[in-house]
Write a structure and sequence with these properties.
2 copies of one chain form a homodimer. Chain A has helices spanning 13-17, 27-39, 62-68, 84-92, 106-113, 117-133, 156-168, 185-199, 215-224, 252-261, 270-284; strands spanning 8-11, 44-50, 76-81, 97-103, 137-143, 173-178, 204-208, 229-232. By secondary structure, the first copy, chain A, is α/β, with parallel strands linked by helices. The first copy, chain A, has one domain: Aldolase class I (TIM Barrel), CATH 3.20.20.70. Chain A has an 8-stranded parallel beta barrel with strand order 1-2-3-4-5-6-7-8, surrounded by 8 helices. In chain A, helix 8 (185-199) crosses helix 9 (215-224) and helix 10 (252-261) runs antiparallel to helix 11 (270-284). The two termini of chain A are 13 Å apart.
């Protein structure tokens, strides 16, 4: 199996994970979590979303949080925006990366962003222009890239059209998001085969949810195609607002364990990430979906092979 | 990706899963569970272990359970034995398949079976002879084939020696067990490359635990090598007596979902397996490690892609 020599992990737990929890962490608690992730070696962390504070109370402190972050060049902090207002808010902060996100599936787009896919795509141009004009790097993500309600919903052409537009408008990175956890190795391969030529030299990442347990199987398929950018969430924190009982993103420490066992160096300390997950499971008072964090540190072994 | 055209699943939940639960199911409850699994389409089910009833109270009713099973040629029921006394007990019942199991790792063998690996291997000859003499088919399994406490414990030569002996003595199937969940795709490949030539025409199966989240990634690696026999447990029920907090076997319905999405027909109804897992999660009053069973049936989609 050929694998990429290095892996870029974007930790999305503080955004995609925390937004699903009933208990809203304080800004101070979030800052402590983010500091813990940074000192475990994570260099790309998504910390906030500029969305409606009443719809997503856990993200209401986006400005305050970013204002209090110890920003420096080594840390690629990002925040999510789903519309122009979100980008406006983001550009008033010092966040260096803005994620501009739209959905490939019309019903999902209307439900999640209140816009048709056509309108969302049209709006992405000004969103990118504004972010780039403000000197920010842009992660452009395509939600529901692998389907919305069933795997048959997958629309490679729609994803390709969106990818072209986002690249053309200056995105620094493309992210294909499996929002409802419908990806499987064959669709991962077909989608990446279609999108990679469009992306050219722009890195393509995957944002995978483990809703149906295939998260790391999909990572394996993507690694074989040379993909080296993955979004993960500590402890697999998160879920899906559209699917009751759904697991969250693939767990950071479980993905790291896979990478280490495949001989890929990540520079990230799995034990420290696992310790943060264990703490969050106590704070939220329920088990998180990940596996590694449940084990005592003595059962962890990270030497490759 | 080349995959085998068909898959043989051995459902081990009623043995490997139930033995880890504090609440012991009654024989009637077990029979209902096994009947449910059979009507979901599972044809190979491990139903009991002939082990010390005080050590494993959940398996104390092995004889009564097997006596009450609706045995017929279409169903390959099996029971586990770790020593000669176990095989003697099994042969007094009508169980058609006996699993004869030994460990590749000395410390684990002494802890789990009270025997050195040398003594366990010596004993496996008479165990196989007795089972075969009684007209039974034999699954011969090698525990800790992928390590015991760390992945460095893996001993390909020891596994190969055990595999040769078990094949020579007439095993109908070899099963490599990742008892403590230490397998990773590279070790799966290396181990199968060593064992497949020894097994020759005898099928080699994998018994994988999802302790560190790599269960289905390991399945992917094995499928690519043509392996088509897998042990799974409904809901991922189970754990490991040596690792607190460990997840159980790979979940039957999650593995089935992967196989269906890879276009491999299994003849097994995922929704019915998931419904049984949901019921068990209520009976045991804790979530099981699997993912699929948590979803409402409307979020399941099994059409192959």
């Amino acid at each position: 199996m050929r694998v990429p020599p290095t892996i870029h992990i974007t930790e999305v737990g503080p955004r995609d994970g925390l937004q699903m929890e009933l208990r809203v962490l304080s800004t101070a608690e979030k800052l402590e979590l983010i500091a813990g992730l940074a000192s475990a070696g994570l260099r790309e962390i998504q910390v906030a979303a500029f969305v409606h504070p009443e719809k997503v109370p856990a993200m209401a402190d986006a400005e305050a949080l970013i204002g209090a972050l110890p920003l420096h060049d080594q840390m690629h902090y990002s925040a999510l925006a789903l519309n122009l207002q979100g980008v406006v808010r983001a550009c008033r902060t010092a966040i260096p990366w803005i994620e501009i996100s739209l959905s490939a599936h019309d019903a999902h787009s209307r439900r999640n962003a209140g816009l048709s896919t056509t309108d969302a795509l049209a709006q992405s141009g000004p969103m990118l222009a504004m972010a780039i004009g403000a000197g920010r790097k842009v992660r452009a993500s395509i939600q529901c890239a692998f389907g919305y309600e069933t795997p048959e919903d997958v629309d490679i052409d729609a994803v390709a059209v969106a990818a072209s537009r986002l690249v053309e408008k200056g995105a620094d990175r493309l992210v294909l998001a499996d929002t409802t956890g419908l990806a499987a190795p064959p669709t991962v391969r077909r989608m990446l085969a279609a999108v990679a030529p469009i992306a050219g030299s722009i890195p393509v990442g995957l944002h995978l949810h483990d809703t149906r347990g295939l998260g790391l199987a999909n990572v394996m398929a993507a690694l074989e195609l040379g993909i080296s950018h993955f979004d993960t969430s500590l402890g697999g924190l998160g879920g899906c607002p559209f699917i009751e009982g759904a697991a969250g993103n693939i767990a950071t420490e479980d993905a790291l364990y896979l990478f280490h066992r495949l001989g890929i160096a990540t520079g990230i300390d799995i034990s420290r990430v696992a310790a943060l997950s264990r703490r969050l499971a106590r704070v939220f008072n329920h088990p998180l979906p990940g596996k590694i964090y449940r084990l005592a540190a003595t059962h962890l072994d990270f030497r490759p092979r």
